[in-house]
Amino acid sequence: MPTDHPVSTITPALIEAEARQWLGHPWRHQGRGPTHVDCAGLVVMVAHALGLPYVDETGYGRRPLGDTLLRPLRAQLVELRNIGAARRGDVVALAEGGSAVSHMGILTLRHGRLYLVHALARRRMVVEDPWDGEWWEKSKFAFRWQHLAQQHLAQQDGEG
User: Fold this and answer.
1) 10-159, what's its fold?
2) Which residues does the UniProt record annotate as the domain NlpC/P60 (predicted)?
3) Domain range annotation of the chain
4) Which long-range contacts (CB under 8 A, 24 or more apart) does 12-15 make?
5) What is the C-alpha separation between 28 and 33, in angstroms, rounded?
6) Closest listed residue to residue 95, CA positions, set 123, 64, 73, 124
7) Residues 80-120: pLDDT tens digits?
8) pLDDT at 158 over 60
């Protein structure tokens, strides 16, 4: 259920908290809650719970081809030029077992370290893993919600 907060008040910490609400939920291909989600479904459910605009796209197979998972992200979020600039609340797109993006998750922050909340098929549930090693290496793109990207630009303009 969407919140009553204006989108402009949704912070990275709120996105992180909502993503963590899904920890332990079972994984199911193309799951869209409330009982099951896949990696794309997790992003959709977090967005919808917070009232963030996000149009779902379910036309993908178990092994997505081409840019199937990237299209909705690129159409609705702001792609970061440098994946290393990603921070909590951002969405990361990953390639598992090939060059095409086949997975995604939401970054969180714990003890000063970035983690990835994602619905992982091989563990059959939503988990939170450190965003380093395997997950960092598989990360291909990072995206920021429109309102957060605009706020970031406004802050940079104010500093200049």
Assistant:
1) endopeptidase fold (from Nostoc punctiforme) (3.90.1720)
2) 9-147
3) 10-159
4) 12/87, 12/88, 12/89, 12/90, 12/148, 13/88, 13/89, 14/50, 14/89, 15/46, 15/50, 15/52, 15/88, 15/89, 15/106, 15/145
5) 9
6) 64
7) 999 999 999 999 999 987 778 999 999 999 999 999 999 99
8) no
In this prediction, residue 1 carries a pLDDT of 43
The rounded distance, in Å, linking the Cα atoms of 49 and 19 is: 10
89 closest CA partner among 6, 5, 10, 157: 10
Q: Please, what is the average pLDDT of the chain?
A: 89
* pTM (predicted TM-score): 0.91
Q: How far is CA 21 from the centre of its chain?
A: 14
Residues with Cβ within 8 Å of residue 84, at least 6 apart in sequence: none
Cβ neighbours of residue 107 under 8 Å, at least 6 residues apart?
16, 86, 87, 88, 89, 90, 91, 92, 114, 115, 116, 117, 131, 142
Tokens at 1, concatenated: 């259920």
Write down the pLDDT at residue 144.
96
User: Residue 100 has which token pair?
Assistant: 């095409």
Q: For residue 39, give both structure tokens.
A: 């990696």
